[in-house]
Design goal:
The complex is a heterotrimer of chains A (745), B (171) and C (293). Chain A has 19 helices and 28 strands. Chain A has a seven-stranded mixed sheet with strand order 3-5-1-12-9-10-11, sandwiched between helices. The radius of gyration of chain A is 27 Å and the shape is globular. The radius of gyration of chain B is 18 Å and the shape is globular. Chain C contains ten helices and 14 strands. Chain C is globular and about 60 Å long. Classes of the chains: A alpha+beta (745), B alpha+beta (171), C alpha+beta (293). At the A-B interface, helix 1 and helix 16 of A face helix 2, helix 3, helix 4 and helix 5 of B.
Chain lengths: 745, 171, 293
C-alpha cells in the first residue's frame, strides 16, 4: 500500500500547525535565561515598546503546580526565580504581530546572579556544584551477570577502551509549535507532537484541569525522532498559559534558531569498556561503565540510561558481565529522547571496542563477531534467553556478501598502496534493538485501541499513535484491511485527539507497528464479535453487519477494543535488572565503505549496506525508508553533526553551522531484510524505527580505522569524527612515527 | 524617476499563473507573503537562512529559497508555488517513498518538478547534486532521488505518447 | 525599511548619489539570512538592483568574459562556453551553495559582501578579474586582487556600484579549484583555493592589459577562509615562480604563514586550516611542478 497521506504531503496540502487558519489570535514568544545557574535578580522591560499591547506571563500566572510532569516533578514550566540552565523559560509574551513579539522577547533583559555551574558531566563535581542528591547522580543502574572480577582476573587478555559520543540535534524539518485556544470552556491544544496524552498528563496539574476540560489534538507533524516526545508538553503549557491570560488563541511556533537552542538533544555519553578475551576471541568478561550527561532536569534520562545499559554489552554471548550506568546532572539544556534512546551511545562503544579487540588479537573483526554473536539458547547481559530462531551470523553474512566485503578489502589494499592521498576502508557493526517499553513498561502503559464501526459500514481506527512520517496511518490501515477484508477506502485512521481516541501509549520506542498495531488487530477482532459475526467474517459481510448493527442500535457507537496483554513467558525484575528486558529484539549488520582524503582529513561514505531482521516487513517502501533515514542520521552523527557549546547551550543553532547530510553526502543506502515473523507483533512485525540509527556510527568509524588506522597515534574513540579530530589523530601518529624512526637511526 | 519608498509598497506579479496586486511591507519576505497573507501555506519555513530548501518556489521558472527573496523583488516576475503543481503527476514520488514527514516535501517537489521539466539538466548534473539544496531528515534521500528519476521517466513517456498520438481535430 | 527601486543603471547611480548610505540589494542571499531577526537591518535603505535590466546579462568579447552586476552563478554555469574557458567558474559557482542559491546569488554580490569565505571571489581573483565601478561622475577599473583593504573594507566609494566584472580570456596550462567544507554540498568553506598556471606568456595571444605591475608571473594562488579577506598568496606564488624545491607540505608552511592568518571559529580551527592549505597545495601542485618531490 502506498503512503495514504502521501499525495496530501507531496502537493503541499497537509496542514501543519503553523499552516492552520486562525482568527483573532496572538503570537507567543518565550524569554529565556541567559545564564546556566543562578537566582533571577531582575527582569527588565526596556523602553521602546508599548507593553500594554503585550500579554505577559510569568510563574505567578500558573494556576496549578509549576511543573511539567513527566518522570519526576522537577522541571518548572517557568523559572520561579531560579534558573538551572541557559535558555530556561522565564517569561512569556503574546502580541498580535509576530515580528513585534519576537523583537520584544529578544529585547527583554533577564539578570541573573550567577552561581557555580557544572557543565562537564565527566568531571567530579566540586561541593558547590552539587545540585542533585549528594553526588549529582540523577540515576544509577547496575546489571550483573556471573562473576566479572574473577573472570577478568582469569582472562589471558584484557582490552580496555573509553568511547565518547557527542550530543545530537534532531533537526526535524518542521520546527516545534503549538496553538492553544478556549473552545466552549475546554482548553484545546493543537500542535506538532508525538504523544498527545503526555501533554494531557503534563498540563492537568499545571492548569488544574481534568481530561474533560483539556483536549489535545495532534496536527500533521513534520518529523519527531524523539524530539517531539517530551518537549511539546512545555510549549503546550506556555501556549496555554498565554491563551488563558489573553482570552485569545495563542500560537507559539519556534523558529529554527530557538528550536535548536532550547529543545532537547541526544545525551552525550562516555562509555568505558574493560574486556577479558580468550586467544580465540571469545568474550570472557565485560566490565562496562556507562555515563550519560542528563542536563539540568531529569526528563527521560533514567529510561534512556536503562535502555542504554541493557544494550551496552552488544548482541554477544558472555557469561560474566557487569554494567554500571549513571546519568549525571549538569547545568546544560536538558537532554531527552532521540531515536535509539541510549542504545546508539552504547552501540558506538561496544562496536568500536570489538574492532579494537580484533586488532589487538590480530583477528579479522568479522571472525571476532562470528565467534561471539548470540546463538539461540544463549543469554543477554540481563540473562534474557534469546530463542527466536533468527540466525544472527546469517544476518552478518548477508551483509558481507552484499557489500562484497572480502573483494573490497583486497581492492582497497591495492588502491591505498597506489594513491597519493586517498585511502579506502570498510567497516562493520552488528547490533540489536529491543522494541517497546522495557520490562513491564508495556503492562503499566496498559494501552488501548478502539476500532469503531460507523453507520455507513466503514470503520475508524482510533488510537493515540501519531503519524510523524514513519507511516502509522498506512500501517494501521493495512492491518485493519487485512484483518477485516475491507477496502482501504473503508478504513479511516482518526487524527489523534484525546477527546476521541483512547490512550494507546506514546509514539516512541519503535512500538507503534509492533505493539499498537497488534492492538488494532485485536480491536478489529473485537469489533467483529460485537457486530455479531464469526471470527472468520471478512469483507462485505463485515460491512453489512456493521450497517445492520447501527440500524438496530440507532445513536449508539459500535466499538471494538484492543487492550495490551503481555506475551506469555516474559519475566522481568526491576530491582535486580534481570530477566526479559524486551519481548523481542530486532537484529542487524551494517557495512560502510569509506574514502579518507589525507589532504583534508574528510571522510566520504562510498557505499552502505544495511541488513536487518525486523520480523515480518509490513510495507517494503516504508520499511526501507525507515532504514535509509536512520542510516542517514547515524552517518551524520558519526561524521558531521557537532554541537558547539557555550555555557552549556548550543552555539551553532543554525543549519548553516550544524551540519546534517545532504543528498550529495550520501551514497545509495542498500537495504535488505531477513524476515522472521514475531508471533506477538502485528502480522509478525518487530519494531524497526530506532534500530538503524545504532549501527552507522561504529560501522563508519571502523571503516575509517580500516583505511587509515595504521597511521593514527591511537584509534578514533569519539564521534563526531570531524576532519579536525581525525587530523589530530593522524598528525600525532605521524609525529610518533617520526620520533621512533629518529630514535632508531 | 522613482524616489525613496518607505514602509509599504504595492507590487504586481504573476502568482501561479494569475496576475495579482498586493501591498507589501518592504521588509516582508516572499515566504511570509505567500504563507501568511496570500493563503498559500504549502511553502514551508525550515531554517530562514537558505539552507534547507523547504521554502523552495520557482521564480521565473528557476528554484529559489523564498526565505531569501524580499517580496519587493518579485515585482513584474513570475512566482510558482507548490499549490500550482498538478497532483495527478506526483505519483512517481509517492511510489518511491519520496515523502515521509512531509515538511521538506513541498520544497523537494518544487525542485524535483523543475528537474523533471528540464531533463537536459541531467546531461551536466546528477540528481543528487540538483537536490542537494533540499534537506530531508527522514528518507536518507534514496526515496527522493529515485522519485525524481521516476518523474523524469514518467514525463518522457508522456511526451512520447503525446508525440505518437495523431493531432486531434484533423483529417 | 526604505527602498530605492531604479529601473535603469543611470537611475540607480543617481539614486545612489542622492542616498550614498543605501545598501545595494542584488540576489539577497547574504542580506536576507535571518532577516526576520535582524531588526537593525530594517532600519536601512536598500537599493534594489533587480529592476535594472542592463546589469543582468553577461557577454563574451574577444578579450574577456564580462559579468554584469546581477549575473548569477547559475547564468555562468549554464553558459555552454564557460566549461572550456573558465572551468573554475563552473566549479566555484556549483559549490557556492544549492541550486536555489546559485540561481539568486550574484558574482558581484559575493564580492561586495566581502566575506572571507566567499567562494566566487578566489576564482575571479585567480583569473585576474577587473572590477568596473561606476558612479554618476564616471567609471573606474580596479583589479579584484587590490579591491580588499581589510575585513569588510573595500575600495568602493559611497555612490559607486560594481557594474561589471571583466575576466580576461587567457590560456591556462593548469588550474584547480578546491573547496573544503564540512560536507560535500551546501557548506560554508573552511579553507578554499583557486590555483592557476598561465600558459607560457609568449604563446598567449591575448593582449589584455595586465591587472597590475609585478604580475607577470604565471602562477596565481588565491585562498579563502584563512585571512580577513580572500587573499592572493604572493609568497606561495613567488616560491612557485622561483621553482623552489618542495619535498612535503611542511616546506610550504613558511610561505603560507606569510600570506595568510587563519583563526579558530565556530566552523574550524586555525591549525586545521593551515595544515589543510599546505596539504592541498602540496598534493595538487605535485603533479604539475617538477620541483615538488
Amino acid at each position: 500500500m502506498k503512503r495514504r497521506e502521501g499525495l496530501s504531503k507531496l502537493s503541499g496540502r497537509e496542514p501543519y500547525v503553523d499552516d492552520l487558519p486562525l482568527d483573532d489570535f496572538l503570537w507567543g514568544a518565550t524569554v529565556r535565561s541567559p545564564a546556566p545557574r543562578g537566582r533571577i535578580r531582575d527582569i527588565r522591560l526596556p523602553d521602546g515598546f508599548d507593553w500594554s499591547e503585550f500579554v505577559i506571563v510569568d510563574h505567578r500566572d500558573i494556576p496549578g503546580v509549576n511543573c511539567v510532569f513527566l518522570m519526576e516533578e522537577d522541571q518548572p514550566a517557568l523559572a520561579p526565580g531560579y534558573v538551572r540552565h541557559v535558555h530556561e523559560p522565564v517569561l512569556l509574551l503574546a502580541h498580535p504581530s509576530r515580528a513585534e513579539v519576537r523583537r520584544a522577547a529578544s529585547a527583554i533583559a533577564v539578570e541573573v546572579d550567577s552561581e557555580p555551574a557544572i557543565l562537564d558531566f565527566r568531571l567530579s563535581p566540586e561541593p558547590e556544584q552539587i545540585q542533585y542528591a549528594d553526588d549529582n547522580v540523577i540515576k544509577r543502574l547496575e546489571i550483573s551477570k556471573g562473576d566479572v572480577e574473577r573472570a577478568l582476573a582469569d582472562a589471558p587478555i584484557i582490552v580496555e577502551g573509553v568511547y565518547e559520543t557527542g550530543e545530537q540535534e534532531h533537526v526535524y524539518l518542521e520546527n516545534q509549535g503549538m496553538i492553544a485556544s478556549m473552545e466552549d470552556d475546554v482548553l484545546v491544544i493543537r500542535g506538532s507532537m508525538q504523544c498527545p496524552y503526555y501533554v494531557v498528563k503534563a498540563l492537568g496539574p499545571l492548569l488544574g484541569r481534568g481530561e474533560d476540560d483539556l483536549r489535545v489534538i495532534q496536527t500533521a507533524t513534520g518529523g519527531g525522532f524523539g524530539g517531539k516526545e517530551e518537549y511539546p508538553s512545555t510549549i503546550a503549557a506556555h501556549a496555554a498559559l498565554l491563551a488563558l491570560k489573553a482570552g485569545h488563541p495563542v500560537k507559539l511556533v519556534y523558529d529554527r534558531n530557538e528550536d535548536m537552542a532550547a529543545t532537547t538533544k541526544r545525551h552525550p555519553s562516555r562509555v568505558r569498556h574493560r574486556t577479558g578475551v580468550a586467544e580465540d576471541g571469545r568474550l570472557l568478561a565485560q566490565e562496562i561503565e556507562f555515563t550519560l550527561d542528563a542536563g539540568a532536569y531529569v526528563t527521560l534520562s533514567p529510561v534512556v540510561l536503562s535502555r542504554g545499559i541493557i544494550h551496552a554489552a552488544g548482541p554477544y554471548a558472555c557469561d560474566h558481565v557487569h554494567i554500571l550506568g549513571r546519568a549525571m546532572f549538569t547545568n546544560r539544556v536538558p537532554f531527552g529522547a532521540f531515536r535509539g534512546f541510549g542504545n546508539p551511545q552504547g552501540c558506538f562503544a561496544i562496536e568500536r571496542h570489538m574492532d579494537v579487540i580484533a586488532h589487538r588479537l590480530g583477528m579479522d573483526p568479522v571472525q571476532l563477531r562470528r565467534v561471539n554473536l548470540l546463538r539461540d539458547g544463549q543469554t543477554t547481559a540481563t540473562g534474557q534467553v534469546v530463542r527466536d530462531g533468527t540466525d544472527r551470523v546469517a544476518v552478518m553474512s548477508r551483509a558481507l556478501g552484499l557489500s562484497r566485503y572480502r573483494e573490497k578489502r583486497e581492492a582497497h589494499a591495492e588502491y591505498n598502496g597506489g594513491h597519493p592521498y586517498l585511502r579506502r576502508g570498510i567497516g562493520l557493526a552488528t547490533f540489536y534493538h529491543g522494541a517497546g517499553f522495557t520490562g513491564a513498561g508495556e503492562v503499566y502503559l496498559d494501552s488501548r485501541v478502539h476500532v469503531a464501526g460507523l453507520p455507513d459500514g466503514r470503520i475508524e481506527v482510533r488510537t493515540a499513535s501519531t503519524e510523524m512520517g514513519q507511516g502509522m496511518i498506512t500501517i494501521f490501515t493495512q492491518l485493519a484491511v487485512d484483518r477485516l477484508g475491507l477496502a482501504a477506502r473503508d478504513v479511516i485512521v482518526a487524527a489523534p485527539d484525546t477527546h476521541r481516541v483512547p490512550d494507546s501509549g506514546p509514539t516512541v520506542a519503535s512500538r507503534t507497528a509492533m505493539i499498537v498495531g497488534r492492538l488494532v488487530e485485536r480491536a478489529c477482532d473485537d469489533l467483529r464479535l460485537r457486530a455479531g459475526l464469526l471470527a472468520t467474517a471478512r469483507g462485505d459481510v463485515v460491512k453489512t453487519a456493521i450497517i445492520a448493527w447501527h440500524r438496530e442500535h440507532a445513536g449508539e457507537e459500535l466499538i471494538g477494543e484492543g487492550r495490551y496483554e503481555q506475551p506469555p513467558g516474559i519475566a522481568w525484575d526491576e530491582e535486580s535488572y534481570r530477566g526479559d528486558a524486551y519481548g523481542t529484539f530486532a537484529w542487524a549488520a551494517h557495512i560502510a565503505e569509506v574514502e579518507v582524503d589525507l589532504r583534508t582529513y574528510g571522510v566520504r561514505v562510498l557505499d552502505y549496506v544495511a541488513v536487518q531482521e525486523v520480523g515480518a516487513v509490513l510495507n517494503e517502501t516504508l520499511a526501507r525508508g525507515q532504514i535509509q533515514g536512520g542510516v542517514a542520521q547515524g552517518v551524520g552523527w558519526a561524521l558531521f553533526e557537532e554541537v558547539v557549546s557555550r555555557d552549556g547551550a548550543m552555539e551553532n543553532t543554525q543549519l548553516t553551522n550544524y551540519i546534517i547530510p545532504t543528498s550529495g553526502d550520501l551514497p545509495p543506502i542498500r537495504v535488505d531484510f531477513l524476515e522472521n515473523p514475531y508471533p506477538y507483533g502485528a502480522r509478525g512485525a518487530k519494531g524497526i524505527g530506532e534500530l538503524p540509527l545504532n549501527g552507522p556510527p561504529p560501522a563508519v568509524v571502523n571503516a575509517v580505522v580500516d583505511a587509515v588506522g595504521d597511521a593514527c597515534a591511537e584509534e578514533p574513540t569519539a564521534i563526531p569524527l570531524t576532519p579536525e579530530r581525525l587530523m589530530r589523530l593522524l598528525d600525532a601518529g605521524a609525529a610518533a612515527r617520526e620520533s621512533t624512526s629518529a630514535g632508531a637511526s | 524617476m522613482s524616489g525613496l519608498v518607505e514602509g509599504r509598497l504595492e507590487i504586481h506579479f504573476t502568482l501561479n499563473g494569475e496576475e495579482i496586486a498586493v501591498e507589501i511591507d518592504l521588509a516582508e519576505r516572499l515566504l511570509d507573503l505567500l504563507r501568511y497573507r496570500l493563503g498559500l501555506p504549502g511553502t514551508k519555513e525550515g531554517c530562514a537562512e537558505g539552507e534547507c530548501g523547504a521554502c523552495t518556489v520557482l521564480l521565473d521558472g528557476t528554484p529559489v529559497d523564498s526565505c531569501l527573496v524580499p517580496a519587493l523583488q518579485v515585482r513584474g516576475r513570475q512566482v510558482d508555488t507548490i499549490e500550482t503543481v498538478d497532483p495527478s503527476r506526483l505519483g512517481p514520488f509517492l511510489e518511491t517513498g519520496a515523502t515521509q514527514c512531509g515538511a521538506c516535501t513541498p520544497g523537494v517537489v518544487m525542485t524535483g518538478v523543475w528537474v523533471r521539466d528540464h531533463p537536459e539538466l541531467l546531461e551536466r548534473h546528477t540528481i543528487r547534486e540538483l537536490m542537494a539544496g533540499n534537506l530531508c531528515r527522514c528518507t536518507g534521500y534514496d526515496g527522493i532521488v529515485e522519485g525524481v528519476e521516476a518523474a523524469v521517466k514518467d514525463a518522457e513517456a508522456r511526451r512520447e505518447s503525446e508525440a505518437r498520438r495523431p493531432p486531434s481535430g484533423r483529417e | 525599511m526604505k527602498a530605492l527601486l531604479p529601473s535603469s543603471l543611470d537611475e540607480a547611480l543617481e539614486l545612489l548619489a542622492a542616498h550614498p548610505e543605501a545598501i545595494p540589494l542584488a540576489g539577497g542571499t547574504d542580506l536576507l539570512v535571518h532577516w526576520p531577526q535582524q531588526h537593525d537591518a530594517h532600519e536601512h535603505t536598500y537599493l534594489d538592483l533587480s529592476g535594472v535590466a542592463e546589469l543582468v546579462a553577461h557577454r563574451w568579447t574577444d578579450e574577456a568574459l564580462v559579468l554584469g552586476a546581477m549575473t548569477t552563478y547559475w547564468d555562468v554555469i549554464q553558459d555552454e562556453r564557460t566549461p572550456a574557458r573558465f572551468p573554475m567558474l563552473i566549479e566555484a559557482g556549483s559549490q557556492v551553495g544549492s541550486i536555489q542559491i546559485q540561481a539568486r546569488g550574484t558574482w558581484a554580490g559575493n564580492i561586495v559582501n566581502a566575506s572571507p569565505a566567499a567562494d566566487g571571489v578566489p576564482v575571479l581573483m585567480a583569473y585576474d578579474a577587473m572590477l568596473v565601478l561606476r558612479d554618476i561622475d564616471g567609471e573606474e577599473e580596479i583589479p579584484l586582487a587590490d579591491f580588499y583593504l581589510d575585513y569588510k573594507v573595500m575600495r568602493r566609494r559611497p555612490g559607486q556600484l560594481i557594474t561589471e566584472i571583466r575576466i580576461p580570456r587567457r590560456a591556462f596550462e593548469w588550474q584547480r579549484f578546491e573547496k573544503v567544507g564540512p560536507r560535500a554540498a551546501q557548506a560554508i568553506t573552511k579553507i578554499g583555493l583557486a590555483m592557476a598556471k598561465r600558459a607560457d606568456a609568449a604563446s598567449d595571444s591575448s593582449t589584455v592589459t595586465d591587472s597590475s605591475a609585478g604580475d607577470e608571473g604565471v602562477w596565481r594562488i588565491v585562498a579563502n577562509s584563512v585571512a580577513p579577506t580572500v587573499r592572493r598568496c604572493r609568497a606561495v606564488e613567488a616560491l612557485l615562480e622561483a621553482k623552489t624545491p618542495v619535498s612535503g607540505p611542511g616546506d610550504l608552511l613558511p610561505a603560507i604563514r606569510e600570506d595568510v592568518s587563519p583563526i579558530d571559529d565556530i566552523r574550524s580551527t586555525a591549525e586545521y586550516r593551515e595544515t589543510v592549505m599546505a596539504r592541498l597545495l602540496y598534493y595538487d601542485l605535485r603533479g604539475v611542478c617538477p620541483f615538488f618531490s
